[in-house]
Amino acid sequence: MPDSQQPPFWGPADHERDLDALLSGTAGSIPPALRPVESTLAALRAAPNRRELSNEAAARAAFRALAAPQAPWTAAAEHGTVNSDTLVLPLGEHVLPPADRRPPRAARHRRRRRRASEGRRRSAIALTSVAVVAVVAIAVAATGALPGSIGQMVSFGSHPTSAASSPAPAGQKPGSLDGSGHASRQSPRRPPTAAPSASPSATTDPSALCHEFLDFSRPRNQTMKPEDSEALTRLAGGPDKVSGYCFHLLWPSAAFPTQRPFAYSSFGDFPGGPGGRGRDYPGAIAPGVTTAR
Amino acid sequence: VVGDDFAVVLAAAQGGSEEMFAVLWRDANPALTRYLRVLAPEGAEDIAAETWVSVLRGLATFTGDETAWRAWLFTTARRRFLDQARHQRRHPVEPLDGIGVGDLPTAPDAAQLAMDNIATESAIALLSKLPEQQADIIMLRVVAGLDTDVIAEMLGTTAGNVRVAAHRGLRKLEALLANGGVTSRAGVTL
Predict the structure, then answer these.
(1) Residues 6+ away with beta carbon under 8 Å from A64
(2) Alpha-carbon span B158 to B149, nearest angstrom
(3) CA B138 from centre of chain
(4) Which of A145, A236, B89, B150 has CB atoms 3.0–4.6 Å from A241's, for a disulfide?
């Protein structure tokens, strides 16, 4: 309702001015009819009584608990408890940024929430990693070869070793025992060049054969050359041992620790694995001989 | 009303001065208590305490003059009152029918309190008989000392509505007093 529209109930304007004056406490001449109202409102404005000021101690305590911790030395100084033996820390309101004076409750909430989200993120990353490893292992166990994209991922960007660049002479297997009975380990060969598609033909270099075997970048309808496949099968000691042989040959220290076998049973068949099978292959590590990692 | 020294007192209280906060408290708490006793006669003390706790939590960040300070204080009190009213609606309290008035525990200085400021007690009792909105506005005008525009902003209405409600409340108060049947809690007929 606009202020200009006064309801009929209000009566004359003089009376309204009197009511306004009563409310603001500036009444000069009050009509007799309004004197009881004036005295009532004056009683509401009366000086505080004892009861209304009886809780000052509690209010001071609340102040010390909620507002004073920002400057604890101030209250102590007011009460005269600061003396020469009192250590006044040089941390004052003037050195505290406003952000540090907020109630600590909100900060606890934020920190807790952030910590929880980090934990969830780490758990998700760990679970994803385990799942990827499991899928790769199952794929290798089932097909004897890695799927193309995963195979590329596992190869860490390495390319097949050309026959000319391989330091291992033909016919000698990596990881074979030397004359002293100690295991001589072949360092992984990862030449930076040589495209995967340019695989050597009819080579007997085990590394090159393995790179060709694990070359998943080639189209699906193209298979390994028959002569290379036969040579690799012969080197590995059987068609079911080709995968383990190649992994052990190419990544002897990274993927297959000799003292702590790979957890998946399908890899127990690779030479030197926990199954005890495949010890007859030329690159197998003799029982009781451990390689230094 | 603190007056011209309000800015200095407030700054000192915000800086941690307990004495300066006590000045603010002694100035505002009687009006705050009377205001709450009109709105919630039973839980006025508790609501006042909760109000001061809320005010203390935001004291360091408050900016404004004395009018803004009182408006903030009474707005906080009003919100605490509404919170308590909402809570009581959800969790109604059963009356103690089996216990008589004489059996209720009394404070040691109850007799002295009864003699204190009888007129104020009677006025508060009289204001409690008005409709809640009218009593609210009259108390904010008279006790808190806020003007019509500030109250309108607090209540989320227009200044005209505030003025109309205040005048209607005064009319009703006048009628109650004219009837002569209003007796205060202390037994004093106004």
Answers:
(1) A75, B18
(2) 8
(3) 11
(4) A236
